[in-house]
Amino acid sequence: MLITISRQTGSLGQEITDLLAKNLDIPVLTREMAMNQWFPEVAGKHELHMLHESPAFYHTLCSQGITFAEFLENKLRDYAAQQSAIIFGMGAQIIFADHPQALHAKIIASHEVRTARVMRLHSLAKTDAERFMELTDRKHKRYVATVYNRDWADPTLYHITLNTDHMSVEEGTDLLAYFAQSRQTDRLSEAVTEQANDKPVVFKHPSEEEFAQILDMHDIEWEYEPRTFPIKWDEEGHVIQAFSPDFYLPRFNNYIELTTMDQRYTAAKKKKVELLKKLYPGTNISIVYKNDFYSLVERFGLRKGSD
């Protein structure tokens, strides 16, 4: 089970998250936890300070040769691949946008209700409470916009949005728990059905079968052409061009497109991939080029007639 939660300040998002984690008996991953436990692996005192203060600093390379944002994404994916979790903030709704079992929730409330809650919780005057909300919400929005170039308020990033104006912490918790458990049950039922109706994969080209064998040798789960992305529409909104990446690797939340066929089509595939990334932000897709692919094939002895 994987649940990501985003919230407005004063929306009861923190309270609902804490109770949900307790009721489901699963851990909550927070930015504070990442700062205290994960980032010290690759960041010094000054870098930790910058990560706390500046979203743009997440684009800086860490000691592993990847950006701090990529380091955090890898940590979150590795954790979620091993056990259930609730991820509080950190752009997780974008990182796990295509995760088949994830539930993305956002918790909101009206300005008036949130102001009253913040005034009561922090013993603040109204103007101070409004200023506090503005600063904290701006920080959430700035992180997602800076690191992922997405609008934190975009409703399409979430499966469900809870307005807690007239909802208690317990009601919000029960609703999310029911939704998450129902979603997990549905996915398990789909998996059982797919297994019962399992049919051999029919590859369109021998190179795809060879690549699947490489993945199997390394126990890497894969799906063959699991999704088709519309990428062009006519004036009436009809799809006139779509793109189906060759493989999807659930563990890495990454699509793979092979370019081992006629290289005249490589440029066209690159354009499709670039357009897909633009139209579907947060979708990870990699191109495996002909030379790279055949080096893997030769390394693992998968060519026809090999010993």
Overview of this protein structure:
With 307 residues, the protein is an alpha/beta fold. It has 2 domains: 2-192, 3-Layer(aba) Sandwich (Rossmann fold); 206-299, Endonuclease, Chain A (3-Layer(aba) Sandwich), CATH 3.40.960. The protein has helices at residues 13-24, 31-38, 45-53, 68-82, 92-95, 111-122, 126-148, 169-196, 206-217, 266-279, 290-299, and strands spanning 2-7, 28-29, 85-88, 102-108, 160-163, 223-224, 229-233, 239-243, 247-249, 254-259, 285-289. It has a 5-stranded parallel sheet with strand order 2-3-1-4-5, with helices on both faces. It has a 4-stranded mixed sheet with strand order 6-9-10-11. Strand 9 and strand 10 (254-259) form a beta hairpin. Helix 1 packs across helix 8 and helix 6 packs across helix 7. The model has no long low-confidence stretch (mean pLDDT 86).
CATH architecture term of the largest domain:
3-Layer(aba) Sandwich
User: In total, how many domains does the architecture comprise?
Assistant: 2
Q: What is the ordering of alpha helices and beta strands?
A: EHEHHHEHEHHEHHEEEEEHEH
Determine the number of helices (DSSP H or I, runs of at least 4 residues): 11
Would you tell me the structural class of the helices and strands?
alpha/beta
Which regions contain 5 or more consecutive residues with pLDDT less than 50? none
Q: Note the overall shape.
A: globular
Level of helix content? 40-55%
Beta content: 15-25%
- Write the CATH fold name of the largest domain: Rossmann fold
Major sheet summary line: 5 strands, parallel
* Rg (CA only): 22 Å
